[in-house]
Write a structure and sequence with these properties.
The protein has about 300 residues and is mostly helical. It has helices at about 1-50, 70-75, 80-110, 115-125, 125-130, 135-140, 145-155, 155-175, 180-190, 190-200, 200-210, 215-225, 230-240, 240-255, 260-270, 275-305; strands at about 50-55, 60-65.
Length: about 300
């Protein structure tokens, strides 16, 4: 009787697991169908465009096969594309570590209990709204802000910023800090607004992970005499370590595909301003392969230090 009861329980658990998987496929089905219908064909078509020259005709367009000429032009003739790709890679290497650390620090603060926590969360979540395309376009088209910026530059605002940077550099040099670290600090400080905008979604990811940690673990650790520093390294960080990989992958993709990225602007201008769709497609495919390569390397490096809890 006991064995039959266990067998019945196993069958019920398996049937429940099968139902959950089926429901998962149901929820994912619209995304899969949308990808196949609206994304798969344009992606394959752009691959053909990258090996061809597209000429617009009265009846549509005509493709002239060029082989690898577009790719040869990008990497052997056009020096600007290589420079902006390297600049984009350098910006990613600077932004991603700073954004992930800043996001985790802010999420840890927001996870604490204090008065006015809801107000502070609302203020720190404003970058989510600012990062939206609508607000960004309004911000770029705000004539009043443009006049203020022009007045600030005319009044010597940029000169004041340069003086502050020089003072900071002098202070770091007096501390005998290496020039590489000094350049990194100065470059990071100049990206404060950009870092705040990029950290919007990672803050939400880390906060959701910290809130999912059972409070009983913290209570038991404090009862055993653990300090907050020990709790952070032994409980908080290991429990949310899988989300660190998620946040890093998200930040890399966001940094590479941001609308302000010069590579994205170059791809767009080549296609719609110069009407060189073949060269633009070659840029897009080369850039996508670079992104996939970076993601693969980062995944291999970061996944080794991730702790998964089942």
């Amino acid at each position: 009787m006991v064995k039959s009861g266990k067998a019945g329980g196993n069958r019920r658990s398996r049937s429940l697991e099968v139902k959950q998987r089926r429901m998962g496929y149901v929820f994912v089905a619209p995304l899969i169908v949308g990808m196949l219908v609206f994304v798969a064909f344009p992606v394959i078509q752009s691959l053909f465009f990258s090996f061809s020259k597209l000429s617009v005709t009265a009846s549509g367009y005509r493709l002239s096969f060029l082989g690898g000429e577009n790719y040869r032009y990008l990497f052997a003739v056009d020096p600007e594309f290589r420079q902006i790709v390297l600049a984009s890679l350098r910006d990613m290497l600077i932004n991603v570590p700073v954004v992930v650390l800043f996001s985790f620090f802010v999420a840890s603060l927001l996870n604490q209990r204090f008065r006015g926590r809801s107000i502070v969360r609302a203020i720190l979540f404003l970058p989510v709204i600012i990062a939206s395309g609508v607000v960004e376009s309004v911000d770029q088209g705000d004539q009043f802000s443009s006049l203020i910026a022009a007045g600030t530059q005319a009044g010597g605002g940029s000169a004041v910023g340069e003086q502050l940077s020089e003072k900071l550099i002098e202070y770091l040099q007096q501390l005998n800090i290496s020039p590489q670290i000094t350049d990194f600090v100065i470059d990071t400080v100049s990206r404060v607004y950009e870092i705040a905008v990029l950290s919007a979604v990672p803050v939400i990811i880390f906060l959701a992970g910290l809130q999912s940690v059972p409070s009983s673990l913290f209570e038991a650790s404090y009862m055993e005499g653990a300090t907050k520093w020990e709790v952070f390294w032994k409980i908080s960080l290991p429990m949310v370590s899988p989300l660190i990989l998620v946040a890093v992958i998200y930040c890399i993709i966001d940094s590479f595909t941001n609308v302000s990225n010069p590579v994205i602007s170059r791809i767009h201008s080549s296609a719609y301003d110069s009407l060189n769709f073949g060269l633009s497609s070659a840029m897009a495919w080369s850039y996508m392969l670079l992104i996939l390569l970076v993601l693969g390397i980062v995944y291999k490096l970061v996944s080794r230090h991730i702790v998964y809890h089942e």
